[in-house]
Automatic annotation (TrEMBL):
<comment type="similarity">
    <text>Belongs to the dTDP-4-dehydrorhamnose reductase family.</text>
</comment>
<dbReference type="InterPro" id="IPR029903">
    <property type="entry name" value="RmlD-like-bd"/>
</dbReference>
<dbReference type="InterPro" id="IPR036291">
    <property type="entry name" value="NAD(P)-bd_dom_sf"/>
</dbReference>
<protein>
    <recommendedName>
        <fullName>dTDP-4-dehydrorhamnose reductase</fullName>
        <ecNumber>1.1.1.133</ecNumber>
    </recommendedName>
</protein>
<dbReference type="Pfam" id="PF04321">
    <property type="entry name" value="RmlD_sub_bind"/>
</dbReference>
<comment type="function">
    <text>Catalyzes the reduction of dTDP-6-deoxy-L-lyxo-4-hexulose to yield dTDP-L-rhamnose.</text>
</comment>
<comment type="pathway">
    <text>Carbohydrate biosynthesis; dTDP-L-rhamnose biosynthesis.</text>
</comment>
<feature type="domain" description="RmlD-like substrate binding">
    <location>
        <begin position="5"/>
        <end position="283"/>
    </location>
</feature>
<dbReference type="InterPro" id="IPR005913">
    <property type="entry name" value="dTDP_dehydrorham_reduct"/>
</dbReference>
<keyword id="KW-0521">NADP</keyword>
<keyword id="KW-0560">Oxidoreductase</keyword>
Length: 284
């Protein structure tokens, strides 16, 4: 029986990873942020020992907060990931690390391939890029970076749930229509990560970077309209606006659409279309 370790197990993705792994024969260790501080190298080394696969869902996720606390964000998203990679190298474990579309500049017009040049536009993206580089450098044969984006799910605060809450409170909702991306259900991503980890153990998935986002693309405005429609609400209650109307401390990439070519080489299908997953999430 293989032994899996999930860090950040209390978060939205972490909870879905545990739910998916429950249906596999794996022995699973679940560590929340309170259980394991990944910035503590000794604690990380002790936690990783004895595991075959480590899925890192622990992260600093406060994008705006990272602008004024980049060192703290990098300690978790960069240095801490390096501790995990170092420990996995010593333990002979595969590491699946969840990263972000924010490592790209967001000025593209076609999906970013896995090997596209990185150029983050904010502190959060820079902190996550440090983590990516630690994985690929320290674990060239056993490190897997899975970039995701626009994540939503049942286990935490997210855009979809916020929109549906606002639908019950307001007649109309203004949503930005000038950022394009791929809304991704955390449960679908969790299934993909478990499939990748199994393929890694079987030797059928090469190490490196993969893109774990839903197929297709839309804007935040388009996502809100689809969520309204699927709930039987009038989508015209969602009104388009621009990013300039919602100034945030951290700049957001205007274009965050990722390509999915590497999954085929691993014998795995990419994630389904974002509309399909959104409907499944709302049913779920």
């Amino acid at each position: 029986m293989t032994a899996w370790l999930v860090t950040g197990a209390g978060g939205m993705l972490g909870q879905d990873l545990l739910a998916v792994l429950k249906d596999t024969p794996a022995a699973v260790t679940a560590l929340t942020r309170a259980d394991l501080d990944i910035t503590d190298p000794a604690a990380v080394r002790a936690a990783v020992t004895g595991h075959d696969v480590v899925v890192n869902a622990a992260a600093w996720t406060d994008v705006d907060g990272a602008e004024s606390a980049e060192d703290a964000a990098t300690a978790v998203n960069g240095t801490g990931v390096g501790h995990l990679a170092d420990a996995c190298a010593d333990a002979g474990a595969r590491l699946l690390h969840v990263s972000t579309d924010y490592v790209f500049p967001g000025d593209g017009t076609s999906p970013y391939p896995e090997d596209a040049p990185t150029a983050p536009v904010n502190a959060y993206g820079r902190s996550k890029l440090v983590g990516e580089r630690a994985v690929t450098t320290l674990l060239p044969d056993d490190g897997y970076v899975v970039r995701t984006a626009w994540l939503y799910g049942a286990g935490g605060r997210n855009f979809v749930s916020t929109m549906l809450r606002l639908a019950a409170e307001r007649d109309t909702v203004a949503v930005v229509n000038d950022q394009r991306g791929q809304p991704t259900w955390s449960r679908a991503l969790a299934k993909q990560l478990v499939a990748l980890g199994s393929a890694a153990l079987a030797g059928t998935a090469a190490a490196g970077v993969y893109h774990g986002t839903a197929a297709g693309e839309t804007t935040w405005y388009g996502l809100a309209r689809e969520a309204f429609a699927l709930r039987g609400l009038d989508p015209d209650r969602v009104r388009p606006t621009t990013s300039a109307a919602f100034v945030r401390p951290a700049p957001r990439p205007a274009y965050s659409v990722l390509g999915h070519d590497r999954w085929a080489a691993a014998g795995l299908a990419p994630l389904p279309d974002w509309r399909e997953s959104l409907a499944a999430f709302l049913r779920h």
